[in-house]
Write a structure and sequence with these properties.
Keywords: Transferase. The chain is an alpha/beta fold. It is built from 13 helices and 8 strands. It folds into 3 domains: 73 residues, Glutaredoxin; 124 residues, Glutathione S-transferase Yfyf (Class Pi), Chain A, domain 2 (Up-down Bundle), CATH 1.20.1050; 76 residues, no CATH class. A hairpin with a 4-residue loop joins strand 6 and strand 7. The structure holds glutathione. The site of glutathione has 14 residues, from helix 3.
Amino acid sequence: MADQLILLGTWISPYSTRVKIALAEKGVDYEFREEDLSNKSPLLLKTNPVNKQIPVLIHNGKPVCESLIIVQYIDQVWNHKSPLLPSDPHQLAQARFWADYVDKQLSSAARQVMSSTSETQETAKNDFIGCLKVLEGELGDKPYFGGETFGIVDVALIPKYSFFFAYEQFCNCSIVAECPALLTWVHRCMEKESVSKNLPDQHKVYDKISERKKKLQSKTGKQPNKIGVKHGKSPRKIYKCCLPHDRLGGVDDACGVGLDLHSDRLWMWPPPFVLLLLRSGAAFESPPSSFALNPRFWNNNDLDY
Ligand SMILES: N[C@@H](CCC(=O)N[C@@H](CS)C(=O)NCC(=O)O)C(=O)O
């Protein structure tokens, strides 16, 4: 009996794009189901109950979560062609290191670019370009990150290309001028059908992000207690945040609140603002003795890349 494969994702998500590319490399057919992250499907909640995030690959009814883990799973199951992971243990460790660098360092720098203001733009740009240059250095003269063939680090990084135009607009920079060798690598990857057919259009991505930014800015003007009501709970205490406005990093008018929702958890809004607070070591006016940030209270699909 043929394998049944369902991919839960969104068209814009670079994490979903990784999975699409890996499946295309293997020549495997699948059904793509577009998720609405503001109203997640019962199937998504059932198959990724811990993170409740896309992508999820459901193979003959069995779910696999986390994009890089899915790519590795695909490589193991469909091992007849286009190996994505090196067999040599040291090369494998290196590949995992660089894929992780893309996930952590580059994604974090890219988020800063997306939320930067005129004051923070220069730092955000330098950090972001700095990460791209590190990757460019790792690429060196090789055609692909792993060497002669397209592999997991290429799969991890190339979906970010769809966001290059948006990054350039938000940080007022030219990626091709800063990292020409990386752009040569991009064009080499784009010659592969598995990549060119699956990467979302840069302008469509830019429009969508601009729309989200506008929505986010209007959301941040809301009163904190309305947020509690929205989630069917009323806050017991509201902690005001003492982060200076010039360190809010682009989230103008952010309310910057923490809500104690009759549990030991502090609930904050909006998610990108929370990330900025955490990174900046923000102080709170009346800090709770201990608190946990529970990301599951958030609808954090804004600026999530
Ligand atoms: N580390 C995860 C990240 C996936 C991720 O951030 N997915 C976002 C969309 S791009 C999502 O599902 N956001 C909704 C949420 O977190 O509630 C992976 O690599 O799969």
